[in-house]
């Protein structure tokens, strides 16, 4: 296993870790009644995720190119290892949501008072900020985990859509690059198809899943939905993410073959 694969593993972990923590932003927005500020602050973390995403594909593509030029066949386990990073990051992110939402809520209040990102960052690294971080450490409540047995008020359609969207987004870039091993002559065409694959998952996210989450968030704000139901829904969305990353392992090779086939048809 090369250093490039390890770096891609780390970048993939960051991408999915931040994506999982994004669910807690809605919880913080509901509790602080500062939804706009919550999303604005979280955009800083989104920038980190986008930067990691920008380096992920080129690094892996470079490894694929070198292997093909050297006559080395694709190592499927490398890709499985990278997909594992997505699952681990989602699980870790899910367990850290209680801690993150406490820290993030304090950051929202801090920013609302000073309205300065530099001051917020300085506070985070100060003695008081470190004490706040230590006091905010918390594992998920057993009562919230126990709610997983109760499927009431959980829309199964949204759950399965999220599983599908996460699976496609997780496998999109990797399957397109692995398709280069299946048909090396069309590896450039295959790699560019990742945007088309991810586009389908993005449509699911922005047309069905995200609007539903936004509407549910507003319902909590106006009192039409309880925070207990809202938290349970967020837990199930995290579960959907974990399942989606596992499904990605199953569909990875078939997806790569489909990408290679489409490349030949173009």
What would you say this structure looks like, in words?
With 266 residues, the chain is mainly alpha-helical. It has one domain (3-265). It has ten helices and no strands. Helix 1 (3-32) runs antiparallel to helix 2 and helix 2 packs parallel to helix 7 (156-182).
Keywords:
266 residues; mainly alpha; 10 helices
- Largest sheet geometry: none
What number of structural domains do the residues give? 1
Percent of residues in beta strands? Answer: under 5%
Total beta strands: 0
Compressed to H and E, one letter per element, the order equals: HHHHHHHHHH
Number of distinct helices: 10
Helix content: over 70%
Structural class: mainly alpha
What is the radius of gyration?
A: 20 Å
Shape descriptor reads globular
Q: Distance between termini?
A: 34 Å
Mean pLDDT: 84
**Poorly predicted residue ranges:** none
Topology of this protein?
Blueprint: H1 3-32, H2 35-69, H3 76-114, H4 117-124, H5 127-136, H6 142-146, H7 156-182, H8 187-192, H9 194-222, H10 227-265
How is this structure best summarized?
With 266 residues, the protein is mostly helical. Helix content is 86%, strand content 0%.
């Amino acid at each position: 296993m090369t250093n490039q694969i390890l770096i891609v593993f780390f970048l993939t972990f960051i991408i999915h870790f931040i994506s999982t923590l994004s669910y807690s932003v809605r919880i913080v927005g509901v509790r602080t009644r500062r939804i706009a500020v919550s999303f604005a602050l979280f955009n800083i973390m989104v920038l980190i995720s986008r930067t990691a995403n920008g380096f992920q594909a080129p690094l892996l593509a470079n490894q694929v190119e070198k292997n093909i030029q050297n006559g080395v066949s694709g190592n499927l386990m490398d890709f499985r290892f990278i997909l594992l990073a997505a699952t681990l990051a989602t699980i870790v992110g899910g367990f850290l949501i209680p801690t993150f939402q406490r820290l993030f809520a304090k950051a929202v209040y801090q920013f609302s008072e000073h309205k300065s990102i530099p001051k917020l960052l300085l506070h985070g690294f100060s003695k008081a900020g470190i004490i706040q971080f230590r006091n905010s450490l918390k594992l998920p409540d057993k009562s919230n985990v126990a709610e997983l047995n109760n499927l009431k008020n959980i829309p199964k359609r949204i759950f399965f859509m999220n599983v599908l969207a996460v699976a496609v987004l997780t496998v999109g870039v990797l399957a397109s690059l692995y398709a280069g091993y299946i048909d090396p002559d069309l590896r450039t065409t295959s790699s560019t198809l990742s945007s088309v694959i991810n586009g389908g998952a993005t449509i699911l996210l922005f047309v069905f899943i995200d609007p539903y989450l936004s509407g549910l968030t507003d319902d909590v704000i106006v009192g039409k939905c309880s925070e207990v139901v809202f938290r349970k829904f967020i837990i199930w969305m995290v579960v959907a993410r974990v399942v989606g990353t596992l499904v990605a392992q199953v569909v990875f090779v078939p997806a790569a073959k489909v990408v290679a086939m489409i490349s030949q048809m173009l």
